[in-house]
Amino acid sequence: MLTNPVVVSILLMSVLCLMRFNVMLSIIFSAMLAGILSLADFQVVHQIYQTQGFGYEMLGVYWQTLEKTMKVFIKGMSGNLEVALSYILLGGIACAIGRSHLTHILIYRVTPLIGNHKSLFCLWIALIACFSQNLIPVHIAFIPVLIPPFLALMNRMKLDRRAVASALSFGLQAPYIALPFGFGLIFHTIIRDSLKQNGVEVTLSDVASVMWIGGVAMVVGLFVAIFVLYAKPRNYIQTRAEKRNLQEINVSMDGRDYGVLFGVFVTFAVQYFSDSLFLGALVGLLTMIVSKGIVYDEVNEVMDGGMKMMSFIAFVVLVASGYASVLQEGGSIGLLVNETAGLMSNQVLSALLMLVIGLLITMGIGTSFGTIPIIATIFCPLGLALGFSTSAIILLVGIAGALGDSGSPASDSTLGPTSGLNADGQHNHIWDTCVPTFLVYNTSLIVVGVVGAVWLNG
After folding, report:
1. Where is the chain membrane-spanning (predicted)?
2. Could you give phi then psi for residue 275, rounded to 5 degrees?
3. Is 296 part of a structural domain of the chain?
């Protein structure tokens, strides 16, 4: 199992990221390694080595494998092309908001309500993030719009942004795990359909009656992050503008501010009714230009600012999609599941290994929604063979799919928080978002998932 291309490539990606190596390059190098390990014909390589030793012909085989890997990788990048372009357009909207008075007004109105209560601020952020998944399902579109205006307030409170990253990640993940509304309805439907396709008959109500346990695990992780791990003050560099008294800020709105605000509402409305983040962002930007929220002569400056803010995230999303295609093309994921199945001797160990497999897969491909159909093909017959009840199988498949969404460098649940919290360049994607969310949420999900599966099994 330790030599499986999925395990080896994800370990390489994790080590490179933790060494502060560029995230995008880390994913690309890991994808290339996974491709060579899974797509190369090692029987041919062995025959060449036996007859000719190490030489140009053997290198030629590896070079051909690398070329094949690159083709699969580049073709797979198209899977997230619309998402990447949407993020660039959202960056333009966020930049337009930053150039208006809305940021000052928002800070002025919220500060008296929050005071200096850091934990209250984090819980409020978590609540807003929850709404983005169920009530108004705009996913991470709100983060580059909402969070940057509050960085000055966070700096004054000396609030550790790792706590805010954890709050945002909670709101992006917990609702779809636990509640069958919005994105949660999509997630629960995928669980139901995947289980049915693999011989486990369940309904949406069956899924919802179990997956609340995953929500409990997320709440535990949120409280640990806010009240224990990241409760201490942390200093950030403040600009002169941030140090001014808030009462000195002019909070009156002009026509340009109303144009930008109207564009924001249009963005969310179009995205909601069309189910297209790209279309919502495009129409929102056009609305801001027509309503003069963005002055025509400043369109280039606004879009340049949006590119600087979101281009990194957009390209990471693209290469993550290519990485997922390489893993799936080589069949390494199925091999990993089959190899691990042989190690399962009792229900506690089996539940733990199932969840670890889900963690590895989601860490690699960056999406819990895409992990469910992959693991259900093996987990369902395996769970039945091991004597797990239907409820326990639902929980194991659901949590195994969700594991890794928090903590993966390529996941929306980490890229989204970083896009807002790093607006001033003082928040590291790996050490300030990925590592904290990985620790608090994946740990709690694994523990609660194992205990919950055994409990549901009676």
Report:
1. 6-39, 84-103, 123-151, 163-190, 210-230, 251-270, 276-295, 307-327, 347-366, 378-403, 438-456
2. 60, 30
3. yes
Cα–Cα distance measured from residue 41 to residue 30, given in angstroms and rounded to the nearest whole number: 19
67 is a domain residue: no
Residue 140 phi, psi dihedral angles, 5° rounding: -85, 5
Q: Which two tokens stand for residue 274?
A: 């069309």
| 213 domain residue, yes or no | no
Distance of alpha carbon 151 from alpha carbon 257, whole angstroms: 20
Q: Which of 16-30, 60-74, 335-349 has the lowest mean pLDDT?
A: 335-349
User: Domain total for the chain?
Assistant: 1
- In the block, tokens 């590291």 appear at 428
Distance of alpha carbon 176 from alpha carbon 187, whole angstroms: 6
Q: Say how far apart CA 185 and CA 175 lie, in whole Å.
A: 10
**Dihedral (Cα; 192, 441, 130, 433), 10-degree rounding:** -130
Q: What is the mean pLDDT of the chain?
A: 80
Segment 54-68, tens digit of pLDDT:
666 667 777 788 888
Question: Does residue 219 fall inside a structural domain?
Answer: no
145-186 pLDDT, tens digit per residue, is 778 878 888 888 889 999 999 999 999 889 889 888 767 777
Query: In b/e form, how buried is each residue of 174-212, taking b as 16+ CB within 10 angstroms?
Result: bbbbbbbbbbbbebbebbbebbeebebebeeebbbebbe
- What's residue 445's pLDDT? 92
User: How much of the chain, in percent, has pLDDT values that exceed 70?
Assistant: 83
